[in-house]
Specification:
Number of domains: 1
Distance between the termini: 42 Å
Radius of gyration: 20 Å
Number of helices: 8
Length: about 220
């Protein structure tokens, strides 16, 4: 693999982790993001389930991109995505009924997650399988990071635990609001505010460096 090809592959992978993070930049998939992130375990489980569906469906869509008629491409993508969602649904149910019950209907709703359908239409249908799957892996990893960032904060503040392990002892008074729907909006807003501040600081630094070079 040439240096240019490696650089392109790395760029495709990093796109979804930072520049187009589906949670903190594109603000997509908010339904599961806010609903299942009451704990870090639920967040990681939903993120990994979405990762499997996204990577596999993008790979298959890319393989079929030249044989699927344009008139039925969206319907075909939905069938492909639904097939992998069904696989994930049965696997989670077999591995852990507790996680399956916690995630509830949001496993099936992966079918209509705009992150997956958007990647299939905007990227996988226009690129070869390896590039499509690397991009999907980066995008889904960004989604996992976003879910974990919310789930960890909500679990720590709302239950005093992280991945089920107690952090503060029996005297800790949990912030009950964090495990309720408003807590999801509060934590998401705080993370978005942080990333917005970091972005403005970076832009200001780049502008100052540009002004210094211009002088």
């Amino acid at each position: 693999m040439s240096d240019l090809s490696q650089a392109r592959t790395f760029d495709e992978f990093m796109e979804g982790i930072w520049r187009q993070n589906p949670v903190f930049v594109m603000v997509l998939g908010m339904c599961p993001t806010l609903a299942v992130t009451v704990s870090a375990v639920n967040a990681v489980s939903m993120g990994l389930a979405t990762m499997f569906v996204l990577v596999c469906s993008c790979g298959l869509v890319s393989l079929m991109r030249n044989i699927v008629p344009k008139e039925v491409r969206i319907a075909t993508y939905i069938v492909i995505i639904a097939t992998f969602v069904t696989v994930v649904d049965y696997v989670i149910q077999a591995v852990s009924l507790a996680v399956y019950d916690a995630l509830g209907a949001f496993i099936q709703l992966i079918v209509v997650n705009c992150i997956i359908l958007g990647r299939a239409e905007a990227h996988a249908s226009k690129h070869p399988p390896l590039v499509a799957m690397v991009n999907a892996l980066g995008m889904s990893l960004g989604f996992v990071i976003g879910l974990l960032a919310l789930g960890a904060v909500r679990e720590v503040l709302g239950a005093g635990t992280l991945f089920g392990f107690s952090l503060f002892g029996a005297d800790f008074q949990p912030w009950v609001v964090m495990v309720l729907p408003p807590g999801g909006f509060i934590v998401l807003g705080a993370w978005l505010l942080l990333f917005s501040a970091l972005k403005r600081r970076q832009e200001a630094r780049l502008a100052a460096q540009g002004g210094g070079h211009g002088a």
